[in-house]
Amino acid sequence: MEDLNNKVANGGATADGILPSTEWNQVASELQNIIESMGLVLSAGNLQQLGNSLAAMIQGGSNFCTDTGSSIAYVIVPINTNFNGIGTNFNGRMAKFRPANTNTTTNPTLAAYGVAAAPIIAENGTAIAIGDISTLRDAELRYDGVSWRLLDRSKNLVVSSTYHTGYINGLTLLNDFADSDHDIQFNAGACADSTGTYNLVLGTTIKQIDVSWALGTGGGASNTLLADNWYRTFVIGGASAVTDCGFDQSSTAANLRAAAGVATGNTYDKYRQVGWVKTLAGVANITQFIQDSAYPEYVKWATPHVSETSAVAAASIARQTFRAEAPPGVQAEISWSVKVNHASSFEGGFWGGALTAPDVNSTRANHLMYWNFENTNGDGQMQMITYPITDGSSNLGFRFYNFIGAIASFKEWDFLTQGYRYNRGRG
To answer: pTM, whole model, 2 decimals?
Structure first.
């Protein structure tokens, strides 16, 4: 619109008090454009349209944008394409958008509202970290006259003001993939870190236990992959690092965090264990499991594991140990099956459970199973399921005892690990 100063004031050098139609139409068009840019239809009966349109702009409806750029050069336009605002950036101008890509460089640029690109920096003026701009969150930036400053609240790791210590939602594991022997899907979710100081938010990510760790979907290993070993699964992050995940045998994710630091150049000092995986006894492939998202603390083996059988142990009145197919220090789901074969009168019992229980000769009042046969021959079989807690080596104990007859009457037994319960750091 052209300058109309002095044109409507009599007495000016060029003013005659009358605007020609072309000049007056410029004023009306400017006002109409504001109204129509907010999606309103011009109406002679509504004299509040201009005020409503200005209010919508002020409330920020006009500065939420769509990103059409890349991971190193963001390009945004308002969702309301009729409004790009002033065609130049000014100190204090705001931009907000959902990124189409997570940044892969520490010095990306932003071209906003049709204006030439300017650097993106952190709110404190330093370089941003890889992953600070994420597809998982809206990005909010403020122009400072030279650069676009990414506000701290837009970053991927924020001080926990909502999540309580032990909080976790989602982050379940799935191994039903093309390479189910080595790939684990970490389902999307959020949790407080191990200290309850930070929130960690992760999108769905597939990690390979047999490939060295890399950012995002792909390698997740930080230890040598061996057969018959347990590996912890972690979500990791840091104040200047993108939240990610992977495998480690360290209880503090020390190896995983170190590998992530080397790979990205950022400091990973936050972590939370969210589960376990185990490799098979004869080959370094992941044992197949089922974790129901509705009951994420319970893990079932796709095939129950025979953890102890009479084929490899002799009946004895002394307590014996066996290794359950469950992580150390968790509740194992054990199915105990014991069969007695007796030739005459027999009375005896069986106990199985955690090694923290006193190792004493059990009595009639202290048993899982109890048999009493008088002057009969034959077999007697019992089965039950309990949930004892494994020791630091995943071991549990069992003990036979008899009051009448021979201990050898205990003919057959099988202890199956059906699965286990892990509280996922809830405390």
So the answer is: 0.63
